């Protein structure tokens, strides 16, 4: 009896101990997150998504789900390898009494004070935080070109990338030192794991530097950054996702503002896109109102006519297929128009992704020299873009920037050949479909006579044309000798000068105006008038027979037409 009691007590004790252990074990076991209230931890298959480098703490009290995602605490040694951050930064500091803006056109003292890393506000729309991205996004080569960048801004750019990007997405960071004064600015940074440094043997400018970086990149996707940026939370995934889905998309983030005075990180408006005026001056502009109304989802991409140029992601083979950049552009400027026109006109698209945010220090002046001068370089680069891509619309560029006329811009044969080879659409298509908001300037009709020696071009009969003795003076000219020159048309009332065939010797006659009719398109070529499509020039032949088109010989008296403006 006693034995039985003792056994029972022993069994109960063991059961109690086991029960206690089971209870404690249950409590410490990780709980699965609830399925109904939160989707951010879910992948496509409904399984909880494993986000690399992220710690998720889930507390499930059956009614609410609290999920806290924290940036990974990265070990500095692991992050920076053999790179000695302190000595890199302290080797160059502002001397007391020095102007902190002099060298970099931003407040160097403030930048240095911030150090290599800092917390910044997540400036995205709150809905962006619950976006899902593929777990198998491609990795990317990040290309940063710089000329005499401040060490603190350059290092902050790199560290923000390393700390705010899942490391599996970074194939490498390629720095191109565009012949900065101190090679160590770049060289020392190559001790950081994944960072490579290429130094130019002479100053090339950002365009050729980026091409060099792209050529040495080993990933299938390229990511370009300026050398004074700070990337924000999840900046890269939205861009890689869009490019992965369609390799012809070229995507950029919303570019936040880092104050050049106090380095405050400020959110930029999410309603802007890239635009320009006819002088090829880049500007941010409001999304057209109809598009704004149609945007029900603030995380949707924004189509943009042009990109700012410095911060974008592009598939590497698409970049190569489209002809990289125009490497005859120097130092700075214009390449963003050239790339943007090319992408749109040759079958791709440009977008700004609101869920991607990158801060950039905007400056008011260039802190570096332009070997050929700032203005001449900008004119050369934009003139190349206009000559290759803008077709007849380039006249508005020249109208807005008269000083560009006659300035050297080198040979564009290669780029014109590229455009033909890629079978790109005309600029008119770009104007009508991508940037219809850009208005062409009001054409003021200029009335003039077209004089050749003592004779003037005049209309004769319903369609005929010939030369007649110049009659009348000032505004008092006969109607038959009064021409309105509205490029590309040469007009008299509603009739226009047109060729009859595209071959040399063809007659020229008058017919109802239509600015899209190729037979009616003319442009001045020196003192001659050239038919735009055939390339032949208006030739008076002889005073008695009607004018024809002939091989251009602008010195030839029968091809010289002096316009004299009449009131
Ligand atoms: O000779 C040079 N070599 C270089 O490597 C001159 C410059 N650079 C580097 C420079 O260190 C910097 O990293 O090129 C980059 C751009 O030069 P910035 O920062 O002096 O000029 P920016 O910020 O005004 O440049 C904007 O316009 C340029 C036109 O050529 C480029 O497209 C830049 O990439 C572009 N920057 C951005 O789009 C960031 C957002 C600013 C805006 C709008
Ligand atoms: Mn910049």
H/I helix tally: 15
Summarize the amount of helix as a percent range. Answer: 25-40%
Radius of gyration, in angstroms, nearest whole number: 33 Å
Low-confidence spans: 23-70
Shape: elongated
Number of strands: 26
Characterize the largest beta sheet: strand count, sense, and whether it forms a barrel. 8 strands, antiparallel
Bound molecules: ligand LR7, manganese (II) ion
Fraction of residues in β-strands: 15-25%
Give me the oligomer status.
single chain
Structural class: alpha+beta
The overall pLDDT average reads 88
Q: Tell me the span between the first and last alpha carbons.
A: 133 Å
Domain Ricin B lectin: 443-564
Transmembrane segments: 6-25
Organism: Knipowitschia caucasica (Caucasian dwarf goby)
Family: Belongs to the glycosyltransferase 2 family. GalNAc-T subfamily.
Polypeptide structure, described:
- The chain is α+β, with helices and mostly antiparallel strands.
- Helices cover 26% and strands 24% of the residues.
- The protein has 15 helices and 26 strands.
- A hairpin with a 5-residue loop joins strand 10 (272-276) and strand 11 (282-286).
- The longest helix has 27 residues, at 2-28.
- The radius of gyration is 33 Å and the shape is elongated.
- Residues 23-70 have low confidence and may be disordered.
- Bound molecules: ligand LR7 and manganese (II) ion (MN).
- Residues 145-147, 149, 178, 203, 205-206, 209, 226-227, 255, 308-311, 331-333, 335-336, 360, 362, 366, 368 line the site of ligand LR7.
- InterPro entries: GalNAc-T (IPR045885), Glyco_trans_2-like (IPR001173), Nucleotide-diphossugar_trans (IPR029044), Ricin_B-like_lectins (IPR035992), Ricin_B_lectin (IPR000772).
- Its cofactor is Mn(2+).
């Amino acid at each position: 009896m006693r034995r039985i009691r003792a056994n029972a007590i022993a069994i109960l004790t063991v059961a109690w101990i086991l029960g206690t252990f089971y209870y404690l074990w249950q409590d410490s076991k990780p709980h699965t997150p609830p399925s109904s209230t939160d989707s951010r931890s879910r992948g496509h298959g409904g399984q909880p998504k494993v986000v690399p480098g992220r710690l998720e703490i889930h507390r499930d009290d059956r009614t609410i789900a609290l999920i806290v995602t924290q940036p990974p605490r990265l070990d500095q040694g692991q992050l920076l390898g053999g790179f000695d951050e302190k000595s890199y930064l302290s080797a160059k500091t502002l001397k007391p009494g020095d102007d902190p803006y002099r060298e970099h056109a931003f407040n160097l003292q403030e930048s240095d004070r911030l150090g290599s890393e800092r917390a910044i506000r997540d400036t995205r729309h709150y809905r962006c935080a619950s976006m899902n991205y593929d777990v198998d996004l491609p990795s990317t080569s990040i290309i940063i070109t710089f000329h005499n960048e401040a060490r603190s801004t350059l290092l902050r750019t790199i560290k923000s990338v390393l700390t705010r990007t899942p490391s599996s997405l970074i194939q490498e960071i390629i720095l191109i030192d565009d012949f900065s004064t101190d090679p160590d600015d770049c060289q020392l940074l190559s001790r950081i794991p994944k960072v490579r440094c290429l130094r130019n043997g002479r100053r090339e400018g950002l365009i050729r530097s980026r091409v060099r970086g792209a050529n040495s990149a080993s990933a299938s996707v390229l990511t370009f950054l300026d050398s004074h940026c700070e990337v924000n939370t999840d900046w890269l995934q939205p861009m890689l996702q869009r490019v992965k889905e369609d390799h012809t998309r070229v995507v950029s983030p919303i570019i936040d503002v880092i104050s050049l005075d106090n380095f405050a990180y400020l959110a930029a408006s999410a309603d802007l896109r890239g635009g320009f005026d006819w002088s090829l001056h880049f500007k941010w502009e409001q999304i057209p109102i109809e598009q704004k109304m149609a945007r029900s989802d603030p995380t949707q991409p924004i189509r943009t006519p042009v990109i700012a140029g410095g911060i974008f992601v592009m598939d590497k083979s698409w970049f190569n297929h489209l002809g990289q950049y125009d490497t005859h552009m120097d130092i700075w400027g214009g390449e963003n128009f050239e790339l943007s026109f090319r992408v749109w006109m040759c079958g791709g698209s440009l977008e700004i992704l609101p869920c991607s945010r990158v801060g950039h220090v905007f400056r008011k002046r260039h802190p570096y020299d332009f070997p050929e001068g700032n203005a001449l370089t900008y004119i050369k680069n934009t003139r190349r873009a206009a000559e290759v891509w803008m077709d007849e619309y380039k006249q508005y560029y020249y109208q807005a920037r008269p000083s560009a006329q006659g300035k050297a811009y080198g040979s564009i044969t290669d780029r014109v050949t590229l455009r033909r080879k890629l079978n790109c659409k005309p600029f008119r298509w770009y104007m009508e479909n991508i940037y219809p908001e850009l208005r062409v300037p009001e054409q003021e009709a200029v009335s003039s006579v077209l004089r050749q020696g003592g004779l003037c071009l005049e209309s004769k009969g319903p369609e005929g044309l010939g030369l007649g003795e110049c009659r009348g003076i000032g505004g008092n000219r006969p109607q038959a000798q009064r021409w309105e020159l509205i490029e590309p048309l040469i007009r008299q009332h509603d009739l226009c000068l047109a060729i009859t065939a595209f071959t040399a010797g063809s007659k020229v006659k008058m017919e109802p105006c239509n600015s899209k009719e190729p037979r009616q398109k003319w442009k001045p070529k020196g003192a001659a008038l050239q038919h735009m499509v055939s390339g032949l020039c208006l030739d008076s032949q002889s005073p008695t027979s009607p004018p024809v088109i002939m091989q251009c010989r602008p010195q030839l008296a029968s091809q010289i037409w002096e316009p004299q403006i009449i009131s």
